[in-house]
C-alpha cells in the first residue's frame, strides 16, 4: 500500500467531509491514476464513502442543518437505481469510459458553481416540485455504475434549482451519498463482485475515517471552501480527461 495514496485519501476525506460529501469521485480519480483494478476501485470507493459520510450525517443533524424528511424523500427514490446500476455488467473499457465522462461532467458542474453562478438565494417553491425525484433516480443509477455516491452531482443540481440553503443542501447530500453507496455495495455483493482486499483497502479506510472525523468538525471558514472546490475540480477534471484520452 502506497503511503502517498493514504495521505491523499486522508486529505480528500478531510476536505469533502466538511462539505457533506464522501469523496468517492476523488478516490476513484486517485485510484485510476495509481492503476488500481477497476472492480477493486468501485468497492473501495463506496466503502470509503460510507465511513466518511456517516460522520457527516451526524454532524449536520446535530447542527440542525439536515432536513431529514426531504433528504430521505430524495435519497430513498435513488437507492433501487443505485442497486440496479451496480448490478449492470460493465467491461473494464466501458467502465473507464463511463467514469471518464462522469468525472469530467462533475468537474465542469463544480466549475460552473464556482465561477459562473450568481448570488445564491434559496427559493422555497423549489421544494414543492417532484422533478428532483427523477434527477435523484438518474444520479443513483450513475452512482451504482461508477462507484460514486452521487453527491457531487446532486449538490450543483439542487443549488441551480435554489432548493435550500448551502448548508442544508450539504446535509441532504450526505444522506444521499450514504444510502446510494450502501445500495451500490449491495448490488455488487448480490452478483458476487464486491472485492475487499484488506491489505489494500484497510489503510485507506483508516485514513478516511480519521480525515472524515476531523473534516466533519471543521468550519467552512477554516477550510475556505472555494479554494477546496477549485482544487478538487482540477483533480477530477485531469483524471476524467486522461481516462477519456486513454480510452
UniProtKB/TrEMBL annotation:
InterPro entries: TM_pro_TauE-like, TSUP/Inactive_protease-like. Pfam families: TauE. The keyword Protein transport does not apply. Belongs to the 4-toluene sulfonate uptake permease (TSUP) (TC 2.A.102) family. It is found in: Cell membrane; Membrane. Its main location: membrane. This is Probable membrane transporter protein. It comes from Chitinophaga ginsengisoli. The keyword Nucleotidyltransferase does not apply. One of its GO terms (cellular component) is plasma membrane. It is a multi-pass membrane protein. Keywords: Cell membrane, Membrane, Transmembrane, Transmembrane helix. The chain crosses the membrane at residues 43-61, 71-88, 94-112, 132-154, 169-187, 194-215, 227-245.
